[in-house]
């Protein structure tokens, strides 16, 4: 089988139609379109959900008017041609009201991903997403890596990637740079890995 790398599998409009139909027909099926490639996103397990709840509480304590919107579809990549579903995005509570399935990423301060136990994690969460989110201009990308028991904080997007990546093991503190400006105490993350 030959993979076409010089053009997308389909147009953005075709993807949006397909994603809408898939969501209606198959409960729990979530599709993304990153780098011109159609992908399915793994269903989160209970510990994955607990990590998002933990982070939601912390974000709301520090920024009461900002929510960690879970599973919000965003327009990603250069020219907003990609479609991604981060595990969470930090934005004002009303940032996406009235925008539909795929929202403008302008108000997003931080995109969050928590690794799943599938074979695509390495490529998807460590290569494709940082590139797509940086191209989109999202100031901070937080990757909570349950496979390697570490937190990666990507910042300073330059339009192609993130210039700064800080990695700390679970159990240490990590500062999320401005505009987020929160220090995470990552000890609890040790309880939500296999």
Major beta-sheet overview? 6 strands, mixed
Number of helices: 3
Strand content: 25-35%
Q: Which class in CATH terms?
A: Alpha Beta
CATH arch. level architecture: Alpha-Beta Complex
CATH topology, by name, is: tt1808, chain A
Number of domains: 1
Radius of gyration: 16 Å
The succession of helices and strands, N to C, reads HEEHEEEEEEHEEEEE
CATH homologous superfamily label: tt1808, chain A
Q: Roughly what percent helix?
A: 10-25%
Report on the structure:
By secondary structure, this protein is α+β, with helices and mostly antiparallel strands. 24% of the residues lie in helices and 33% in strands. It has three helices and 13 strands; from the N terminus they run αββαββββββαβββββ. A hairpin with a 2-residue loop joins strand 1 and strand 2 (37-41). The chain is globular, with a radius of gyration of 16 Å. The model has no long low-confidence stretch (mean pLDDT 88).
Structure keywords:
alpha+beta, 13 strands, 3 helices, 194 residues, single chain
Blueprint of the fold:
Layout lengths: L11 H14 L4 E5 L2 E5 L4 H17 L3 E5 L2 E4 L5 E3 L3 E5 L9 E2 L6 E5 L6 H16 L3 E6 L4 E8 L4 E8 L3 E4 L5 E4 L9
Parallel strand pairs: 4-7, 8-9
Antiparallel strand pairs: 1-2, 3-6, 4-5, 6-8, 9-10, 10-11, 12-13
Short summary of the structure?
This protein is an alpha+beta fold and about 190 residues long.
């Amino acid at each position: 089988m030959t993979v076409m790398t010089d053009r997308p599998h389909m147009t953005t409009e075709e993807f949006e139609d397909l994603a809408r139909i898939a969501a209606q027909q198959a409960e729990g099926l979530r599709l993304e379109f990153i780098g011109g490639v159609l992908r399915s996103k793994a269903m989160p397990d209970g510990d994955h959900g607990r990590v998002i709840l933990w982070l939601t509480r912390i974000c709301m304590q520090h920024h009461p008017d900002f929510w960690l919107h879970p599973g919000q579809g965003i327009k990603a990549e250069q020219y907003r041609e990609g479609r991604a579903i981060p595990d969470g995005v930090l934005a004002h509570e009303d940032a996406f009201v009235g925008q539909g399935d795929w929202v403008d990423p302008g108000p997003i301060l931080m995109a969050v991903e928590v690794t799943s136990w599938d074979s695509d994690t390495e490529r998807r969460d460590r290569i494709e997403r940082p590139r797509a989110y940086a191209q989109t201009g999202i100031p901070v990308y937080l990757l909570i890596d349950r496979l390697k028991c570490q937190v990666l904080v990507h910042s300073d997007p330059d339009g192609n990637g993130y210039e700064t990546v800080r990695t700390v093991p679970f159990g240490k503190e990590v500062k999320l740079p401005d505009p987020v400006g929160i220090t995470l105490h990552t000890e609890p993350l040790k309880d939500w890995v296999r």
